Amino acid sequence: MAMMRSIASESCAILLLVLVMVLCSCGWIEAADDDLGLGASYIFGDSLVDAGNNNYLPTLSKANIKPNGIDFKASGGNPTGRYTNGRTIGDIVGEELGQPHFAAPFLAPNTTGRAILYGVNYASGGGGVMNSTGRIFVNRLSMDIQIDYFNITRKQIDKLLGPSKAREYIMKKSIFSVTVGANDFLNNYLLPVLSIGARISQTPDQFIDDVITHLRGQLTRLYQLDARKFVIGNVGPIGCIPYQKTINQLDENQCVDLANELAIQYNGRLKDLLTELNENLPGATFVHANVFDLVSDLIKNYAKYGFKSASRACCGNGGQFQGIIPCGPTSTMCEDRSKYVFWDPYHPSEAANLIIAKQLLDGDTDIISPMNLRQLRDL
Ligand SMILES: *[C@@H]1O[C@H](CO)[C@@H](O)[C@H](O)[C@H]1NC(C)=O
Ligand SMILES: *[C@@H]1O[C@H](CO)[C@@H](O)[C@H](O)[C@H]1NC(C)=O
Ligand SMILES: *[C@@H]1O[C@H](CO)[C@@H](O)[C@H](O)[C@H]1NC(C)=O
After folding, report:
1. What is the mean pLDDT of residues 62-74?
2. Is the beta carbon of 152 within 6 A of some atom in ligand 3?
3. Which of 32, 97, 245, 247 gives a 20 to 30 Å CA spacing to 229?
4. Which residue windows are transmembrane per the record (predicted)?
């Protein structure tokens, strides 16, 4: 009897143990999925947000050389392919919204498995809305290709979560950010080598019309792949970057009018496009990020923000503003990287990125509309 009871209680204990284990593993899976509730970002665009895709391309546009990344803690200050000294705006926003990891570059061989649920980065230095943009770099991922790649990720997410959970995850927990357009002007329409550019055959109006038409198609494709929460940055004051100021031999407080006028003209059309898409694509929210006004203010009132210079590149060479040769091992570098709006001839420093990201996360509707990114996440 005693033995029977002990066997019975033993099997009871085993049953309990099995039950506990089953519960625990269920609980663990749930906890892991709750973790995903914090959200993922799928990042599209150009060198402003490239987190290393160009490292895997045969291209002239590369940032995986020192001293790029010198302030990027996760790599111990080594270059990662980011075109800045530290984190990009996409990195900072993801971190602030509670993503446990930075969105990994799509082309990195280890961007597989559950890692893709924390977000994937498709952005590529030199890339633009138009396929022809950035041709001078030989290779780059333009928006059409970036979205083809998301289509691959989309199917992988189906496999990981099952089709219905995958759909819900992409619609509700994922933010799609698009930071593109500057290269369509800088490395296409405005390129000094006119024969490669579109400027000979098209007026600014026609060219901008073309870019907007392509972008409409691209954003609609993302919608077809279940993207619902979008943030689209407009083009910044590209006439004020050290590269443009240097090649046009401007004074410290001047900017190139033509470049800024094109950006303003394009930005007006972009705003209308986002209004149109908000009306026409049911369930989608397109948030407009007014990077142009934000960065213009940063440049104009740099001292108020604690910067020492908004005209010189911290890392670069050539001309009055170190604005001709991109940042690399032979560049001169400024003493205090946190005091420069621009890291290199084209890109903001991490210090500037932090200010921009904060405004996108928490700013009001003159900068980020119809809602800021924290509100978009919680939608
Ligand atoms: C992939 O490898 C890089 C470089 O070794 C590492 O920093 C990164 O964390 C890895 N990513 C994932 C998703 O494992
Ligand atoms: C751009 O290139 C991609 C890939 O080569 C191609 O699929 C797409 O149709 C092209 N888009 C345009 C507008 O030419
Ligand atoms: C995604 O890829 C499939 C083929 O695998 C294709 O049929 C579909 O049109 C693509 N979707 C988009 C939006 O590009």
Report:
1. 95
2. no
3. 32
4. none
Sequence ranges of the domains in the chain: 37-378
Task: Tell me the mean pLDDT in the region 104-121.
Answer: 95
pLDDT value of residue 5: 45
Is pLDDT at 10 greater than 60 in this prediction? no
Is the CB of 151 within 6 Å of ligand 3? yes
Q: How far apart are CA 289 and CA 173, in angstroms?
A: 20
Is the Cβ atom of 264 under 6 angstroms away from ligand 1?
Answer: no
Q: Which two tokens stand for residue 63?
A: 């940032």
Q: At what angle do helices 350-362 and 291-300 cross, to 10 degrees?
A: 130
Distance CA 55, CA 110 (A): 14
SS3 (DSSP) at 41: strand
Determine the Cα–Cα distance for residues 85 and 69; give it in Å rounded to an integer.
4
Over range 240-256, report the average pLDDT.
Answer: 91
Q: Is the dihedral of CA 30, 35, 39, 41 positive or negative?
A: negative
Q: What is the pLDDT of residue 201?
A: 76
- Predicted pLDDT of residue 27: 34
What per-residue confidence (pLDDT) applies to 63?
92
CB contact at 8 A, 87 and 72: yes
Pocket test for ligand 3, best of 149, 151, 222 (most atoms within 8 A of CB): 151
CA 335 from chain center: how many Å?
A: 28
Tens of pLDDT, residue by residue over 148-195, are 999 999 999 999 999 999 999 999 999 999 999 999 998 888 876 654
What is the β-pairing status of strands 332-333 and 315-316? antiparallel
